[in-house]
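Form 7-S
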Amino acid sequence: MTAVTPIRRAGSAVLEPVPAASARTATAPARVPAPGDEVREICAITRATVQAAIEVLAGTRPIHQLARRLDQRCLTVLQHRATLTRRVAARAPRKMGLLHRNASVRSVHACVVTPDVYEASAVVADELRVRAVAVRLERSKNVWRVTALEIG
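Output:
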């Protein structure tokens, strides 16, 4: 006895016979993300992380909200830069207080280095200037973490 299983190719279905025993015992394969899906996921993670990091620099978001996404070294560097930025903005003319305010991520691009490492870049515009941000993401235990964050 055989069962018929449809196989889709370029919008059409082709029927091929499959032995009945294997049809009953076969389990659905685990969904493996397509390369395009993974790049979109990396871009989404990068966009959210960069937006949050800029908000930390502006003083509108607490740094601990990024603790799950950034590794410890990146978190420490970002916290130090945020402290310095606020200190300079407090002493500088009013225009410097607008630095990092109302920032929005304009674009994100990612490329694969290895299957578990991606590098991404983002363009961020705030009230005073447009800046570039570089991010390196590494997968550890099926979780993406930012291991390098460079804000221009």
